[in-house]
Amino acid sequence: MKKIEAIVRKSRFEEVREALHAADIDFLSWWEVKGQGTAKQGLIFRGIAYDVNSVARIFISFVVRDINFEKSINAILKSAYTGESGDGRIFVTQIEQSIRIRTGDKGDESLYDIK
């Protein structure tokens, strides 16, 4: 099992969510976050300087079985891509164990109902 965390543009989030759903990823969590990259920008409006370095992003997190890993990554890459600086990042970590509290199911069975 792998945990996938991705930071994507807020404007691309719906496309990413739809792509993950098409890749059979139906459970995920997300948060609205702000971040700052290496680009430095400022905006002056009516004589007042505003810092626009903090950019709104969506932080997505979910755990997948190994068989769904590649298609999950590809779904994010294709749907979040704009070709411009600031498209985001994907982070992957190994999950040692997963347990469903209600049933005590462990491993892959704890993530999805095995049919």
Mind explaining what this structure looks like?
This protein has helices at 13-22, 69-80, 108-111, and strands at 2-9, 29-35, 42-45, 48-51, 55-64, 88-94. By secondary structure, the protein is α+β, with helices and mostly antiparallel strands. The chain has a single domain (2-111), classed as Alpha-Beta Plaits (2-Layer Sandwich). The strands form two sheets. Strands 2-5-1-6 form a four-stranded antiparallel sheet, with helices on one face. The protein has a two-stranded antiparallel ribbon with strand order 3-4. The longest helix is centred in the middle third of the chain and has 12 residues, at 69-80. The two termini are 18 Å apart. The model has no long low-confidence stretch (mean pLDDT 88).
Mean pLDDT: 88
Give the second-level CATH assignment, the architecture: 2-Layer Sandwich
Strand order of the largest sheet: 2-5-1-6
**What fraction of the residues are assigned to beta strands by DSSP?**
25-35%
The beta-strand count equals: 6
The structure class reads alpha+beta
**CATH fold label:** Alpha-Beta Plaits
User: Low-confidence parts, pLDDT < 50 over ≥5 residues?
Assistant: none
Discrete helix count: 3
How far is the N terminus from the C terminus? 18 Å
What is the H/E string? EHEEEEHEH
Number of domains: 1
Radius of gyration: 18 Å
What layout of secondary structure does this protein have?
Elements: E1 2-9, H1 13-22, E2 29-35, E3 42-45, E4 48-51, E5 55-64, H2 69-80, E6 88-94, H3 108-111
Antiparallel strand pairs: 1-5, 1-6, 2-5, 3-4
